Amino acid sequence: MFPKIGILLVLLVAQGHGLYQGCANSDMCTEPHTYCSKSGFCNCIEGYDPIKVSIYYYCIKRPQEIGGICSVSEDCSTRAICNGTNKCECSEDYVLSPDGKQCLEYATQVGDPCLSPNVCDRLENSLCISGLCTCAAGHIPATNHSRCLQMALHVTDSCEDLPQCSTFLGEGAVCQKGHCYCDFGFTPTQNRNACLPVVHQEGAACVENGQCTAGLGPARCAAAGGVCKCQNGFEPNENNDECV
């Protein structure tokens, strides 16, 4: 009988006490990084936090905040690495928050939220305004919203994407071969800052002479009423769609 009791005691001592189990002294807390607290339970030592895996509790090292001392990147908080001076800093794809305590993701699209101005840094020509990455003045979002492109102000200005042309020059503007042009059925204004629809009927509304000449031939935009009229010496044909 006595040998069995001795074996049981040995097994209990060998098993030790895990996290949150009762104890009389720290030697009884055999789980790594634990000690016996004043309340008589095994707790994590300073610098370690409890974690539950399945039905068991363990103590893991508390991640260092940005600027904290480290030896390997695993010592640092999420999104941070251990740099050459053994301090935690944000990894390449993240930027430091204004309070210096966390690493924020860079914005990838215009309209993404920004808790810090630096969040928008990888979006060309953008700023953090009212908590959102916004295109700077004179720029508009690309079709896929991945960056901000300079707005075209004149026909033949350079472009990469349709919105650069159509935003200011109008829906009749297109981006072709790297430049803004007026699409079929449209003609540039005299100062080339817009694309206006070509007028194909004598007597139809117009803004500039170019609309009339592009559609009717020798015609002009009459100041009185703002309609296309054939020039002196020319008359509209029977279909009213050409000056002859």
Automatic annotation (TrEMBL):
SMART domains in the cross-refs: EGF (SM00181)
Keyword annotations from UniProtKB, A to Z: Signal
Signal peptide: 1-18
Keyword Transmembrane helix: no
Residues annotated as domain EGF-like: 22-60, 69-104, 113-149, 194-244
KW Signal (keyword) present: yes
Pfam families noted in UniProt: EB
Name assigned to this protein: EGF-like domain-containing protein
Lineage summary: Eukaryota, Metazoa, Ecdysozoa, Arthropoda, Hexapoda
